[in-house]
Amino acid sequence: MNDIKKMIKNSFLYGIYRNIMQEMTIRLWTRDDQRNFLLYSEFIAPGCLCFDIGANIGNRTKAFLKIGAKVIAVEPQNKCMKILEKHYGKNKNVKLIHRALGEKEGVKEMMIGSEHTLSSLSKNWVESVKNSGRFSEFSWDEKQKVSLTTLDYLIETYGSPDFIKIDVEGYEYEVLKGLTSPVKLLSLEFTPEYIDSTINCLNHLSRIGNLELNWSKNESMRMELEDWVDKDRMIKLLEGNRTQLFFGDVYARFVS
């Protein structure tokens, strides 16, 4: 069955269908866009500065702009950057950065997924999701050399952001190692196969400053906890939910 799914998703006609649906998703305001908008509106206001790290084709950038924020959109994939340039290249409230982020400046090989949302700089993450079978119908046969910069560099260049969204398919810890000072608020994706990396992220952030944490499960785009919690409590929550279908985003804010 997985071989059949892979064959369909790699077919020419499926590629055409995917491109059409992708274009419609970008141009139209969808239900998912509205859910993104409602969540981000809780802590982003007009004029805020947002970093969209792993912007892909811009679905989060789209919501940030709707709120009235200014966006630094960082995306290393060539195909995704062409789409971002087409739709946001002339928008004065968007700065497109055709790079990836990491612990330090450099060049690294990216594994490009047959589904662009699954492309990753982490070989370990790709192997983990292959072994779990969660994305068994997809492949990572294409490679692309990408330039790396750091969160510290972006902050030095563009200013301290009000919000950082990080969604980089298993490379979140490396991205956060390039951050050495507190920011107002950030989110980072977690997946069930890579919970230990998420815990490393939280430990790193706690060394930078005092944290309060919340989470959003499975693209629900709503905070699960009424009260924000400390690092130890969030780690227990993550450890207790290592199920194959459980993924989401952890939100971290620095408090004095």
Q: What would you say this structure looks like, in words?
A:
- The chain has 256 residues and is α/β, with parallel strands linked by helices.
- It has a domain at 30-101 and 149-255: Rossmann fold (3-Layer(aba) Sandwich), CATH 3.40.50.
- The protein is 39% helix and 22% strand.
- The chain has 10 helices and 10 strands.
- Strands 3-2-1-7-8-10-9 form a 7-stranded mixed sheet, sandwiched between helices.
- The chain is globular, with a radius of gyration of 18 Å.
Give the structure's gist in a few sentences.
Helices cover 39% and strands 22% of the residues. The chain is α/β, with parallel strands linked by helices. The model has no long low-confidence stretch (mean pLDDT 93).
Q: Biggest sheet: strands, sense, closure? A: 7 strands, mixed
Work out the helicity level: 25-40%
Oligomeric status of the shown chains? single chain
> Helix count, per DSSP?
10
Reading off the top of the CATH hierarchy, the class of the domain at 30-101 and 149-255 is best stated as Alpha Beta
> Any idea what the radius of gyration is?
18 Å
Low-pLDDT regions: none
Q: Spatial order of the strands in the main sheet?
A: 3-2-1-7-8-10-9
Q: Categorize the overall geometry.
A: globular
Give the distance, in angstroms, between the N- and C-terminal Cα atoms.
53 Å
Order of helices and strands: HHHEHEHEEEHEHEHEHEHE
Mean pLDDT: 93
